[in-house]
Amino acid sequence: MTAQVDRKHLMTSVEMAHFVAHGAIAFEGVVPDELNRRAIDVLDAGIDPVPYGTPLDVAFPEGTFVRELIDLPVVAGAIQSLVGPSPNIDHHAVHVRPPRGGEAQNMHGDAILDTRRDAFDAQLMYYPREVTLEQGGTLSVPGTHLRRINQTGIGRYQNLAGQTRLTCPAGTVVLLHHGIWHGGRRNDSDVPRYMFKIRFNPAVRQLRLWNTDDIDSDGVRRELTQQFGWTNANEGRLELVNRAKLWRTLTGDENFDIDYYLTRETLRPQFIAPGATDVRLGSSLAADGWGR
Amino acid sequence: MRQQVMVLYLGTSALDSAVIGWTRYDGTGRSRPTMGDSDEPPYATGLDALLDGWRLLQMSQLLSHAEGHEYDTAYLPYEFLFEKLVDFGGA
User: Fold this and answer.
1) Looking at the record's lineage, which domain of life comes first (chain B) (predicted)?
2) Which candidate from A156, A165, A242 shows the least CB-CB separation from B73?
3) Chain B residue whose CA is closest to A108
4) Do B5 and B79 touch, CB atoms closer than 8 A?
C-alpha cells in the first residue's frame, strides 16, 4: 500500500461519482476463497488494536493477513482512489454477530458529528462469508453521508425508503464514507455473521486520486443525480447541492454544478447596466423625470 | 390498554405526502419491530395511517433556516408521531 497502485486498478470517475452520491461502493466477491477460508480463524483470534493514526505499514506489516487483504489490487486501488497512498489507520474492529443472537443496532453514524467538508475517512467492511437477508448484514442508507448528525441521534429511524440491507457473496469488500447512516441488523439465522472493519484517515489532499480518464463522461452526471427513495422528496435537491460541493472539492473544478443550483446562488452581478435610469448611479443619461 | 407508537417521516410537511421513513414501538410486547426489518413502509402517506385508525399526536414544527446554513442537512425534518391504544386482555 505504500507503493503507488497501478492506474488500471484505481476507481474510475463513474465509480467515484457513485461513491459521492451513495456514500458507498461495493466490490462483491473480490477476495479469493483461500483468503476467506483463513479469515475466520484470524478474526476469531482477534486482531491487535493500534493507536489512532498509526501508519498503515506499521499497523499491518507485510506478511500479515490484513495486509494481504488490503493489498489485493482491487482493494488497494479503491483505498488509494478514496484516501490516497499510505493512509493512516484510524482504528479497526472485528464484528461477529452470533446465531439467533443479539439485537439490531440502532441506526447511527460512526464517531461524533464530523464537520469536515473538504476531506473524509473511508471505512472498509470485509465479509469473509456469504451474507443472507436472514443473517441480517449491515444496513446502510445511500446518500445520507453528507447530513450532519451526531452518532445515535438518528437511533429513532428504523427504516428509510431506499435503504440497503446488505446481502453479498463471500469475499465482499464495501467501502463507505465515514458519515453514512448504518447499523448491524439482527441475525435471525443459525450461523454467525463475520465482518471486519478498518477506518482509514487520508494522509494527502483528496484531489483527483482516482483514474480520471473518464471524468467528462455522461456516466459521472448520471451517478451524481441518483435518487434513493428517501431523497425523492423535498430535501432531495439539497442532496444534489451537497454532492456538487463534494465533487468540486474532489476534482478541483470550482465551476461544476448539478441542475444550476450552486451557480445560481453565486449570481450577484455588480456591473451597473447602461440602461439603468437613475442618473445618481452615474452610468447613464437622465431619463424623464430625473435630473431636470 | 397499551400504547403502540408509530413514527412516520414524510417527504414534506404535509400529512398526505409520501412516507420516506418509519419506526414502530409495540407497548403490548407482542411484536418487536427493530432497525432494518422492512423495506416497504406500513403506509404510503401519513393520511393513510389516519384512515387506518392511528391517532396523530404530533407533527414537527417548520423551523427557519439559519443564515449561511441553508444548504445544511441533518435530521429528517418532517416527523409525525402516531399512536394506537390496543386492548391488552384486561392486564
Assistant:
1) Bacteria
2) A242
3) B35
4) no
> Which residues in chain A have their CB less than 8 angstroms from residue B16's CB?
none
Q: How do beta strands B55-59 and A138-140 pair?
A: unpaired
C-alpha pair distances (Å), A219 with each of A80, A226, B51 = 21, 11, 43
CA-based torsion, A98, A102, A104, A108: positive or negative: negative
Cβ contacts of B37 on chain A, cutoff 8 Å: 104, 158-159, 185-186
Which ipTM value was assigned to this complex? 0.96
How many CB atoms are closer than 10 A to CB A114? 18
Which of B35, B40, B45, B62 should one mutate to test binding to chain A, selecting the residue with the greatest count of A CBs within 10 A?
A: B35
Give B-chain residues touching A109 at CB under 8 angstroms. none
Residue B4 is inside which H or E element, if any? strand B2-10
Assign B50 to helix, strand or coil: helix
pLDDT tens per residue, range A110-140: 989 999 999 999 999 999 999 999 998 899 9
Among A131-145, A245-259, A273-287, B59-73, the least confident range: A273-287
SS3 A58: helix
- Cα angle: A260, vertex A266, A271; to 5 degrees: 120
Chain B residues with CB under 8 Å of A136 CB are 36
Does B34 sit within 8 Å of A104, measured CB to CB?
A: yes
Residues linked to residue B23 through DSSP beta bridges, in sequence order: B7
Q: Do A232 and B18 touch (CB under 8 A)?
A: yes
* Per-residue CA distances from A176 to A15, A120, A183, B85 (Å): 13, 10, 13, 41
* H or E, element range at A152: none
DSSP secondary structure of A226-285: ---STTSSTTHHHHHHHHHHHHHHHH--TT--STTHHHHHT----PPPTT---GGGSSSP
